[in-house]
Amino acid sequence: MQLIETITETDYYILSQIEEHYFNVHYKNKELPLQDYLVLIGLAEGLRNTYGKVYLLYTQEPNFSIETETWAYIKENAHRYKFIGANALVVVDLPQRLMTKLYTFFAKNNAPTKIFTDPSKGLEWLKEISRLNS
């Protein structure tokens, strides 16, 4: 997967553009706090002004996790992110994949969301969803 440019990098994540309205959020080996998640989602919402709906490919390092407060916020607010066309979550580790499936089940998300073990398959799916939404 070739990235066009890094938009921002923090201690917790890297937000990069893949192409057009496709973006990669790569989570680092840290526990994501709510404040940093809010900055990230604000950046993604700002991209809507340039690209319309954004399609997000999430990747993560093996020891990534999300703080309980952040999970609770996402669960309650995911339905508000109408600027997201779809979410592809790349999770290789089986225990994390099971936790992610639980999250996607309970979060009330307006955007289609699917879990993958291969980033290229996730990006293909995002492009397919994008074509269907056009």
Summary of the model, kept short:
With 134 residues, this protein is an alpha/beta fold. It has helices spanning 34-51, 68-77, 94-106, 119-133, and strands spanning 5-9, 13-19, 22-27, 31-32, 54-60, 65-66, 84-90, 113-116.
Structure in words:
With 134 residues, the protein is an alpha/beta fold. The protein has a single domain (5-133), classed as 2-Layer Sandwich (Transcription Regulator spoIIAA). The protein contains four helices and eight strands, in the order ββββαββαβαβα. It has helices at 34-51, 68-77, 94-106, 119-133; strands at residues 5-9, 13-19, 22-27, 31-32, 54-60, 65-66, 84-90, 113-116. It has a six-stranded mixed sheet, with helices on both faces. It has a two-stranded parallel ribbon with strand order 4-6. Strand 7 (84-90), helix 3 and strand 8 form a beta-alpha-beta unit. The model has no long low-confidence stretch (mean pLDDT 88).
Helix content: 40-55%
Q: Encode the helix/strand succession as letters.
A: EEEEHEEHEHEH
Q: Give the strand tally.
A: 8
CATH superfamily: STAS domain
Span between termini: 23 Å
Q: Measured on Cα atoms, how large is the radius of gyration?
A: 14 Å
Regions with pLDDT < 50 over 5+ consecutive residues? none
Mean pLDDT: 88
The CATH topology corresponds to: Transcription Regulator spoIIAA
Based on helices, strands and strand pairing, what is the structural class? alpha/beta
How would you write the strand order of the largest sheet?
1-2-3-5-7-8
Query: Beta fraction of the residues?
Result: 25-35%
- The tally of domains stands at 1
CATH first level? Alpha Beta
Largest β sheet strand count, sense and barrel closure:
6 strands, mixed
| Shape verdict | globular
The CATH architecture can be given as 2-Layer Sandwich
Count of alpha and pi helical runs:
4
